Amino acid sequence: MNDTISYYNQNAEEYFDKTVNVSMYDLYDEFEAYLKPGDKILDLGCGSGRDSRYFLSRGYEVVPVDGSRELCLLAGNYIGMDVRNITYEELDYNNEFDAVWACASLLHVDSDKLFDVFSRIKKSLKDKGVIYASWKYGHKERIDNGKLYFDLNEKSLVELFDSFSFSIEKMWISEDNLFRAEQWINVIGKM
To answer: Which residues does 25 contact at the CB level (< 8 Å), separation at least 6?
Structure first.
């Protein structure tokens, strides 16, 4: 994970510019169907701050966090609030959020740390809390362009969510919003 964070620190401006204006409205619509006005959302791995900014504009309370110090600074400037610089392994919230938004972020968690991170996510959620998460579609752990990826498919995703007693409300495959030749697996789960 440290090499991945180093990559994002070194390439923060390029990543920000590439992702900040990507349309995610189809995913927002799916997620918001499970939210109530004013819900508190943890934007886990907020990157450019694009999603936090959208959720704030919709009246939700948002806590953005990211492991990259440089992305935290750029995102904070973009959304006009502090972004907490912590890694997924440092999540320390307890029964605080109505929902977790983990868009293209948990895919950077080592396979051997994913269960610990997921237990921290579950602990951060209130009863009946909701999580949206996405991974690149597949079933392997790999290094690509200096970043660790742990890809999931339907079977591995169901196993992960079952392990933490999350009911899967919806699971679907989507195309890449940056028009790369890859697919994503998306899931909405509920406690």
So the answer is: none
Averages of pLDDT over runs of 10 residues in the chain (191 residues) are: 87 95 95 98 98 98 98 98 97 98 95 93 97 94 87 95 95 77 91 91
Nearest to 36 by CA among 128, 173, 168: 128
CATH number (domain holding residue 103): 3.40.50.150
pTM above 0.90, yes or no: yes
The phi and psi torsions of 39 (rounded to 5 degrees) equal -55, 150
Quote the tokens at residue 156.
């591995």
- Token pair 């992702």: residue: 19
C-alpha neighbours within 13 Å on the C-beta side of residue 52: 25
Number of structural domains found in the chain: 1
Residue 112 domain boundaries:
2-190
The tokens describing 117, both together, are: 């991170």
